[in-house]
């Protein structure tokens, strides 16, 4: 086996996170290995020059995190992502690729396919400094309190605000962050074609990604998707995503409802934030509003969910086992505001199952 094909399984301490590097560049593999091995709590478990060798490694070894390049000979990273997720048995994938520039289509595609996060890989000779700091931050973000090398365990249903067997909403508002794009795709694919309630989405992404994100959502959901604009009318059968630097708010009109954009500070510190979206949707639609909180860091959405419940809305959150980060949904669940805690595909099926059965 040549140096370019080098694959190994390193000895890793029991309390260290195991990392597999998948990159066709020998220089990149060497630099990434040094960064990981010098980061407390992490150790390079193996390296692979292509997807086939990565799959062979994962067939016999378990890891916690996979660093994946997208531009590789043979099967590229995007095409290999679903197989690597399955073979990884709970491993989280961080895409590290020069293809992940701001606004790049590959970034949103990778996140929709199940990658947890992305990071732009610098040119050779520029791996030091800021890149190392950000890589370590991303690695820490993808680490939680699960045992190293183990897939997430199923969790029991926490206390909830009530029961939820499904609903027939007039509006669905969805908040998400890290890991949320993949969860969104699982949820939206389960909605039947006849489901026509408008859908609002606040996903934490830079503004430069929003046009492609909207196009990706339109393809996944099978319905038009728009980047929200001020005073845009909310129409049935359409999806609206928050722009990168403004919150989505809903306002009642004489003949329906419209969006208003705002940039005020909110408790979570996020912009866009799910809090104004949840609270305003419930203020307009009351008991006919459904708010969904998907995977994400922090507590964004919790205060909005509290206000929404006071106005009669139903709150449903993603379960811990299927979440990349159970911060946002976990905060809502811990507050006792959720009527159900479910995987995203089950949320989608239950939302779509009852519309039209009034």
Automatic annotation (TrEMBL):
GO terms for molecular function: methyltransferase activity; phosphorelay response regulator activity; protein-glutamate methylesterase activity. PROSITE patterns: CHEB (PS50122), RESPONSE_REGULATORY (PS50110). InterPro entries: CheB-like, CheB_C, CheY-like_superfamily, Sig_transdc_resp-reg_Me-estase, Sig_transdc_resp-reg_receiver. The active site is at residues 177, 204, 300. It catalyses: [protein]-L-glutamate 5-O-methyl ester + H2O = L-glutamyl-[protein] + methanol + H(+). It comes from the Bacteria. GO terms for cellular component: cytoplasm. Keywords: Chemotaxis, Hydrolase, Methyltransferase, Phosphoprotein, Transferase. The modification 4-aspartylphosphate is found at residue 69. Residues 165-351 form the CheB-type methylesterase domain. The keyword Cell membrane does not apply. It is an enzyme of class 3 (hydrolase). Residues 18-136 form the Response regulatory domain. This is protein-glutamate methylesterase. It comes from Sphingomonas baiyangensis. The gene is cheB.
């Amino acid at each position: 086996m040549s140096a370019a094909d080098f694959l190994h399984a390193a000895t890793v301490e029991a309390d260290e996170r195991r990392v597999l590097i998948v990159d066709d560049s020998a220089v990149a593999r060497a630099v990434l290995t040094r960064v990981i091995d010098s980061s407390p709590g992490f150790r390079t478990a193996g390296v692979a020059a292509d997807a086939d060798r990565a799959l062979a490694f994962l067939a016999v070894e378990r890891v916690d995190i996979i660093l994946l390049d997208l531009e590789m000979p043979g099967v590229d990273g995007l095409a290999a992502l679903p197989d690597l997720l399955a073979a990884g048995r709970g491993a989280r994938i961080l895409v590290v690729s020069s293809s992940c520039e701001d606004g790049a289509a590959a970034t949103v595609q990778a996140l929709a396919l199940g990658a947890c996060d992305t990071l732009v890989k610098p040119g050779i000779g520029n791996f030091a400094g800021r890149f190392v700091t950000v890589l370590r931050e991303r690695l820490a973000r993808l680490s939680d309190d699960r045992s190293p090398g183990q897939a997430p365990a199923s969790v029991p249903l926490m206390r909830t605000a009530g029961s939820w067997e499904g609903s027939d909403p007039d509006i669905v508002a969805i908040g998400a962050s890290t890991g949320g794009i993949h969860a969104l795709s699982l949820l939206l694919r389960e909605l039947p074609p006849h489901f026509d309630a408008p859908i609002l989405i606040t996903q934490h992404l830079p503004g430069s990604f929003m046009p492609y994100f909207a196009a990706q959502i339109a393809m996944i959901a099978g319905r038009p998707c728009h980047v929200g604009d001020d005073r845009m009318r909310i129409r049935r059968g359409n999806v609206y995503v928050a722009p990168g630097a403004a919150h989505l708010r809903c306002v009642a009109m004489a003949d329906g409802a419209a969006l208003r954009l705002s940039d005020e500070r909110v408790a979570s510190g996020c912009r866009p934030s799910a809090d104004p979206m949840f609270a305003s949707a419930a203020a307009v639609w009351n008991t006919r509003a459904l708010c969904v909180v998907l995977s994400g860091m922090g507590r964004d959405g919790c205060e909005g969910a509290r206000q929404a419940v006071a106005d009669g809305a139903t709150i449903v959150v993603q379960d811990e086992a299927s979440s990349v980060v159970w911060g946002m949904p976990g905060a809502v669940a811990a507050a006792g505001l959720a009527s159900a805690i479910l995987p995203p595909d089950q949320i989608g099926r239950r939302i779509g199952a009852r519309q039209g059965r009034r």
